[in-house]
Write a structure and sequence with these properties.
The chain is an alpha/beta fold and 412 residues long. The chain has one domain: Glycosidases (TIM Barrel), CATH 3.20.20.80. It is built from 16 helices and twelve strands. The strands form three sheets. Strands 1-2-5-8-9-10-11-12 form an eight-stranded parallel beta barrel, surrounded by five helices. A two-stranded antiparallel ribbon has the order 3-4. Strand 6 and strand 7 form a beta hairpin. Helix 1 packs parallel to helix 12, helix 3 packs parallel to helix 5 and helix 8 packs parallel to helix 10.
Length: 412
């Protein structure tokens, strides 16, 4: 209750906004799925434009209303872009066979004049669903990781050229991720999103679960904090409310800029383009995501509240429903489909290729689990579901019973 009261207070201050959430499809609750734009290429399922079209059309008879198509791996992209490079640009050595297949497929499709994002967006329109281009907000790989090929394959030229823009700890040691404290980083990210918005998409999705941090003790923030409060933030606890507020202010400015570029692109298309986000229910404010401000300003049309772990987690969604009340923004429970396992490593891939081990398996939420869990989230006031790492049409069709008439569902 102590946590709920401030959220309710903030909710009472929210004005009427311009948020316009997508309409549910084949039911009363919104269902959104996310395709990482990578795994299908890695596994050899996406080899040409027809493969992409066929994949999207599989969702035509499901409750899916929005397909989020991820356009970023690391800080490179999977569609022809002037702002950033294709994944694997200039790469000749790969730790995993799938990484090589991804890179070769992206290159070939680009050479053939196939724009993967545009292809998916048009297929979505044919299927009667919306297409949001999804950006993983900070997915760069560490150069000290287990596979030294990954930073070369996935981290963009901007990342390699500007180590001065990476997050720093209180001692000044640089990390892996780029810091949104720098105007140059924000401009670089916006340029990529602006190109995506020029395609035939219906909106943009900002994925803040992939991967924090977004800020450190970076010079623009340290300087601004000193000017405002007369003290060096590096001498204060990381939980200092003033320090958290300053980081959140910087990220809110970025989200405003994304909303503005969508308004600009939408004006050219003669229709409104949506904006969505996925955030962690525990850490969102400390990471710079001021959800209350975003709702107050009407920046988001839907938000997925999730957890930055494997799936199967549970938490109290009701405070977020209360926070969003009156904002017009739809609140979705964010499910992570994968419950056990890990990404295939380069070492494992070599063993699999040599026949010395079977491909590792990963646990997934079952159809019965989805339905039972969905009933609980709907009872808590959720406007729908956001499914990550789940694109099985049979599983999605199985949700029809709870999304079509959630008021009649029985809690397990």
């Amino acid at each position: 209750m102590r946590r709920l009261l401030p959220l309710l207070l903030l909710a009472s201050l929210l004005p009427q906004s311009s948020a316009v959430p997508p309409a549910p499809r084949h039911g009363e609750k919104l269902v959104v799925i996310n395709d990482d734009g990578f795994s299908g290429f890695f596994e050899g399922r996406y080899r040409n434009a027809e493969d992409l079209r066929a994949q999207v059309l599989r969702f035509r008879d499901t409750p899916v209303a929005v397909l989020e198509w991820c356009i970023v791996q690391g800080s490179r992209t999977n569609f022809p872009s002037r702002a950033v490079e294709l994944v694997g640009a200039g790469q000749t050595e790969f730790g995993r066979r799938g990484d090589q297949l991804v890179t070769e497929t992206y290159r070939r499709l680009a050479a053939e004049g196939i724009d993967t994002l545009q292809t998916v967006a048009r297929a979505c329109r044919e299927a009667g669903i919306l297409c949001y281009a999804s950006m993983r907000m900070n997915g760069d790989y560490s150069p000290t990781g287990s596979d030294p090929t990954l930073p070369r394959q996935f981290n963009g030229d901007f990342w390699h050229a500007h180590p001065e823009f990476r997050v720093r700890d209180a001692k000044g040691t640089p990390g892996t991720k780029l810091s949104y404290a720098f105007a140059e980083v924000r401009a670089h990210k916006l340029a990529h999103l602006r190109e995506a918005a020029a395609r035939d998409i219906d909106g943009l999705h900002l994925d803040f679960l992939r991967h924090p941090p977004f800020f450190g003790y970076d010079e623009p923030l340290v300087h601004a904090f000193r000017e405002k409060h007369g003290v060096d933030p590096r001498t204060l606890p990381a939980s200092d409310a003033r320090w958290i507020a300053l980081r959140a202010e910087a990220m809110t400015g970025f989200v405003r800029d994304v909303r503005a570029l969508l308004d600009e692109a939408g004006a050219k298309k003669g229709r409104r383009l949506g904006l969505a986000a996925r955030i962690d229910h525990r850490e969102y404010l400390a990471l710079g995501c001021d959800l209350a401000a975003w709702l107050r300003e009407g920046l988001l049309d839907y938000v997925a509240i999730a957890q930055r772990t494997l799936g199967g987690y549970e938490f109290d969604l009701a405070p977020f429903v209360a926070l969003a009340r009156g904002s017009g923004c739809a609140v979705l429970f964010g499910e992570e489909a994968i419950t056990t396992g890990h990404d295939l490593t380069a070492a494992e891939d070599k063993l699999v290729a040599a026949g010395k081990m079977a491909p590792p398996k990963r646990g997934q939420l079952t159809p019965d689990q989805y339905r039972g869990r969905a009933a609980r989230w709907f009872a808590a006031g959720a406007d729908g579901l956001h499914l990550f790492n789940e694109n099985d049409p049979a599983v999605l069709r199985g949700l029809s019973a709870v999304t079509a008439s959630p008021k009649q569902t029985t809690l397990p």
